[in-house]
Automatic annotation (TrEMBL):
Gene Ontology CC terms: cytoplasm; nucleus
Annotated organism of origin: Helianthus annuus (Common sunflower)
Keywords: Kinase, Repeat, Transferase, WD repeat
Gene Ontology terms for molecular function: myosin heavy chain kinase activity
Any one Pfam family match given in the protein's UniProt record, by short name: WD40
Root EC class: transferase
Signal peptide: none
WD repeat ranges per the UniProt record: 177-218, 219-250, 267-299, 310-340
Annotated protein name in UniProt: Putative transducin/WD40 repeat-like superfamily protein
Amino acid sequence: MREGGRRLSDPNFSFHFSDTDGEISDRHSDFSGNEPVGSPMMKSPWNPGTPWTMASLDEDSSCPKNTLVGSLVREEGHIYSLAASGDLLYTGSDSKNIRVWKNMQEFSAFKSNSGLVKAIIVSGEKIFTGHHDGRVRVWKASSKNPSHYHRVGTFPSVFGVFGVSIRPIHRKHTAVWIKHSDVISCLSLDQEVGLLYSGSWDRTFKVWKMSTSKCVESVKAHDDAVNSVISTVEGFVFTGSADGSVKVWKREGKGRKSLKHIYVKTLLNQESAVTALTVSKNGSFVYSGTSDGIVNFWERENQLAHGGLLNGHKLAVLCLSAAGSLVFSGSADKMICVWKREGLIHTCMSVLTGHSGPVKCLAVVREMESTTARRWKVYSGSLDKSIKVWSVSELAPVMQQMTVVQNGSQVRSAKY
């Protein structure tokens, strides 16, 4: 997606709602400027409707259904990030607050004076948050009072930045090398090797050793903002960018001096910005969402060959998540498409509607009381300042009307 000859980054919307429609403005990813620029999506109606219709259920009450469980609303800012762990939900917004929810009620909150929270990820007892100031902060609940959270670390630490500013460890290991110079847009974990990945609008992704809080590598990955980074099996890392590309990297080595990520290949190269990535649990499928409303996917077992594309949205895909045989795509059209995968075939089995603004983030966990029925609890965060909670079953009926592009069976709308 380009404006005035320059590519737009991951949509970071600011808008005002009216009774009928709204306006969207993109934040350009060039980190030397802060002014918003226009977007082709501004020309699209806020409520375009949906082409989907539910298949007849023949009044079968025993048939699993996808339902809205409830909404969590606190009028303090647009929701930019979500992370779910057990019965806890963590939400980040442009209010600088990270809120913790439990059983549909606010459980706790903690605050960082560093701008909006663009990314949250949970590892054991620690919560990692990515911030507007280019730093990652680490939080932990008190052992005496689980509802009280305190900060236990920062990547990089002030001391670390100051130290390399005075005496660089290596000619390239400067303060710029170990600290992002723009917004952190995404986080990913490789818990087996204890590494945290952070992607930024400064066009790099950085690799952090969680045990030492030190940056062990900085990779200039793209020509525009890095909007998504995913660490997956066998040391593979995928990055998606506003430059319209999805790239594959392979981790080699283990120690700080020997660890490095080698460029493998480019999966996608097009005009529309890549706004989201996700992988299936076993890493067999890689999915990317783009600003033209398309979801592409690739098969790892077939040397990352392109498997097809899913066309279910009218506006930009802003977030993706995968769980079991399902893939969830949230969009600026205010809808969430639920895709069911059977082999290489992806079917849109449901569309979740209810948000009055773009769906910016998703988090999915298995419903604890439904270990055999393959039901998932889906959290969706929106720029309408709300979080909605859905119950989704892999056994729910499939919709009658759907748009699925499989193995190039339809003309592709993206250039690559």
